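Retro notes - structure team

What went well: the batch runner handled both jobs without manual restarts.
What didn't: labels got mixed up in the shared folder, which is why I'm recording both outputs here explicitly, each with its sequence directly above its tokens.

Job 1
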Amino acid sequence: MPTNTPREVGQRIAILRRAKRMTQADLARVAFVSHATIRAIERGGRSPSDDTLDSIAAALGVDPSRIVTGNTRTDSRVHAAIPAISAAIASYDVPTDAPERPLPELRDAVQQLMDWRLGAQYARIAKHAPVLLDDVLCTLHHSTGAGRLEAAQLVASTARAADAVAFKYGYRDLSARLVDLMRWAAQQTEDPLTEAAAAYVRTETFFVARAHTAGLRALEQAIDASPSTNGRAARASRGALHMRAAVIAGRSGNADAATAHLQEARQFGDMLPEAEYNGTAFGPDSVRAHEVSVAVSLGQDHVQMALNVAKEWTPPTDLPAERQSGFWIELARAQLWAGRGDDAFESLKVARLIAPQHTREHPWARETAATLRRLKRSDAETLTSFAEWIGIV
């Protein structure tokens, strides 16, 4: 297993910095730390604190676990923050004291949280979400008119980011509460696109309950209720709902519905550039990634569909990290079913490189790694090392 001596941590930072063609002074400026601190860390003279590590990782555009390896650092920080997230929403409908932060400042903070969600930066979300949930809820209760509508949008977005942490780390009850909060706030925005986004996220609760048929029905109702497809945002909203419906239709074993919804999603995706629309990444690349999701959801009889997609296309580097890693995790599952164990392991390693936190907490990544280890007990040390990292041994 890789170790984390100050010297090794400093070497990793230096390697990543040079790959970005940054000087130590550049990194210090972007990370908001002193040049002397960067010099000391890179030569192994000191270890970065949690906050400094987060700042350096953000400046380098990587997950902190690319710098400090192991499976306890990030996990412990996320788990420690969960009670505070739960407490922040316990009295979401009870007005509190007047807000301290102005709307423009909250707007920037929520946007940062949304960026972290798409980048699978769960530890950073967990750290900041409790206070931000308090602040946006307080602002909502003390706002009127257009300000209240925007505050409701901020509550919905913050709840969605916090839910990403709760859902990925297995806090299912808290996740369901956050989804309910998102839906509650969405109804107050008077914005059908925000309500559609809430319906998209609500699908998680159907996945957890394995109520796939009911989930498909709920998504199809949301599609029917979504606004006309005039404009990019509306098209992306409708397309994302079809994309999600295709996956849950696959989980329910309804191949015809999965194919139909995927075709609809593909048509909307072809109309739009790949981008983030109202908190959801959508476009032709997202649809391609979901073709693999649908194939894997339908089961082993559809494995060739997933392999065919991967033969022609792989996610571009500008696709959100969570979506990229999801593609490789699902492809690994298909490769394992096809008897291509070595390829499956390579796909898991790519997923880990792109989004370590997402990969380590993904149940299919754990399941695939466990199966590979069981089938190849005498394999190279790297497989055992990966199994230890992902937490299955």
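Job 2
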Amino acid sequence: METLTLDFDETQTKLYLKISNAIRQAIVNGAVMPKEQLPSTRVLAEQLSVNRHTIMAAYNELIAQGWVKTKQRQGYSVADILPINSALADKTKHDNTANKHSWRVIKPSNHDFSRPANEYAFNFAGGNPDIELFPFNEFRSFINDALNRPSIKALNYGENNGYEPFIIEVSKYLRRVRAIVNKEIVVVNGTQEALYIIGQILLQSGDCVAVENLGYRPAWNALKNAGAELIGIKQTDQGIDVADLELLIKRHNIRLLYLTPLHQYPTTTTISAQHRVQIYRLAQQYNIPIIEDDYDHEFHYKSQPLPPMAANDPSGLVIYLSSFSKIMFPGIRLGVIAVDKSLASHIVSYRTLINHKANVLLQDAVARWMRDGGFERHLRKATRCYLKRRKCMIDVLNTFIDEGLTIKFTSPKGGMALWVDVGERAAEIAQLAKELGLFILAENAFHLHQYNDENKFIRLGFAGQSEEKIQQGLKLLKPLLNK
């Protein structure tokens, strides 16, 4: 430790005692912890503008009292066990509690601080990529390039929509792979930030937002934080019920529509091209913007995926969201909004309120990686791997069915998970699975309204772990399905 802030008792006349008392008080207050190194006599003498012998006298006083220890050539450190009796500790704890500020929390936390999915031996979370597949060594070279040859101007304030070379690469990728053109790109720290910003600029308290009855709770929370009332749309095996959506639009003043059309979250169904046209015409007729959350577009296996709704958007009402979390890893915190130019400036302006600048070095590195072709090479590799894991999970579950288990599922055309009908007791199965070290979510985790819960479905993610672990985890799950 090079420096230490001390609070002196000016009633003490002897300087070395004044210093020793201040150090002792810093230890009692927790500013310095047991076993932690203290400043050397030279450093502390310079900091306090006193003679080193005065500091040595102060330290010797604390050594005699049992607060400090010293070892040759290791300097001074706080004692392992402090000479503070339990009564004093209890008094300090009581005084701290009694004097604690009582916060007026307007928007209390609704976060679930339960054990995270990645701490389970078998993680069947539905949206997890396999981070071990990511080419960290390859990507490191592009990070190094960004540091060795940085754009000094871009590292300063400004360009709050994102780093221009990255925007160029993303625009090219969206144009070629997803057929999205004539959209402005705004870079954000992931889809959640995008949803928060959109909610803040398009919604006010009491506005109605139509969402899928089964869906992504964090997205709903971002919209509700803006004051929205969420209206659930009925779902079928073809996605949302378009007739029900039209009925809801006529009953409520719907201000926004949030959808996951390609691989509906969590059921994995794809909204057909015909239904997409019907939904879009309703949105045009009633002037309702659509948020299209295309969270895992790349991972489609049976055929070429349908183009996003944003690819055919003559009215410019689709707000398209895409993230690098599934492609790279969740900790990358990198996403984009593709939106009509008329709205882009408002998004950038609001984003600047909460974050002046996105991570330029990271965007620079990813842009270089995309230009080099490494981005699409990694995508091809991950897609091939996830396809094998999807087949592995389907084969194991089909074996269970052959052995008499009454489970049902439809093999999805894409995505990262299966939506499995276990008949009944879905919530109980998910809970018992966690006790065996398997992270699984039942349908009750995805319902907008719990009264719609049929307690029939569980979601099994296949992308985030090896085929061997899929087989081992499902073997542990099997007896729970058999009860």
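One thing worth noting from job 2: The chain has a mean pLDDT of 92.
We'll revisit the folder naming next retro.
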